[in-house]
Specification:
Elements (H helix, E strand, L loop, with lengths): L3 E6 L3 E5 L5 E6 L2 E4 L4 E4 L3 H18 L6 E4 L4 E5 L2 E12 L2 H7 L6 E11 L8 E2 L1 H6 L5 H23 L3 E15 L2 E7 L7 E5 L9 H4 L5 H12 L14 E2 L1
Parallel strand pairs: 1-14
Antiparallel strand pairs: 1-2, 2-3, 3-7, 4-5, 6-7, 8-9, 8-11, 9-10, 11-12, 11-13
Amino acid sequence: MARRKKIYEGKAKILYEGPEPGTLVQYFKDDATAFNAEKKDVIDGKGVLNNRLSEFFMSGLNAIGVPTHFIRRINMREQLIRSVEIIPLEVVVRNVAAGSMSKRLGIAEGTALPRPIVEFYLKDDDLGDPLVAEEHIIAFGWASQQDLDDMVALALRVNDFMSGVMMAVGIKLVDFKIEIGRIWEGDFQRLIVADEISPDSCRLWDVESGQKLDKDVFRRDLGNLVDAYTEVARRLGVLPTNVTHASKPTLIN
């Protein structure tokens, strides 16, 4: 395998220098974290499943005209992506009350919301990724009003696509998180969906039983995380043949 320079390492992924200017290689790790990394584990095969599932969702978005950073999958753990300038905000879309929304507002988990609600969280692990208002975002220069309008529009289009895809296989899309990146085309900026879309970044419940098929399985000790992710992949028809195959690239300093 070609030697690659590591650009960045996060909780669940590593970014390496790409083969062409403006590209990166995104490697999916088996690490699982929750509660701002207070709970950690390594779960064999998780990275492979997330790579395949993120490929499925990003490819589907590209196909319907929602721009993403995804170019192609390289192997079982890696994909080629466009290099983007990440806006320092997590964009969360909620269709059903769950998690922090239920705790914060006292709404019973599982309550259907009257419409999709879009929230912004500042990407700052030291602060615990706090919820922020649009006024904060504009005042502190994290994004402009036009950026926010574009981000909401992108997030709602992702929600429409994801909700339909998941409902077709008997899964309810409760909520999800995406990140948005800037790319420049000459003097003009364009916003695109970046990072990943996988059960790590979504809440997914079986429509009939309410069984959780997402990272809450790990957060709440509800069973085997890989089994849950495998069930999502199986229903979507993207189950990899061997979830443990693939090795890490050789690094250079």
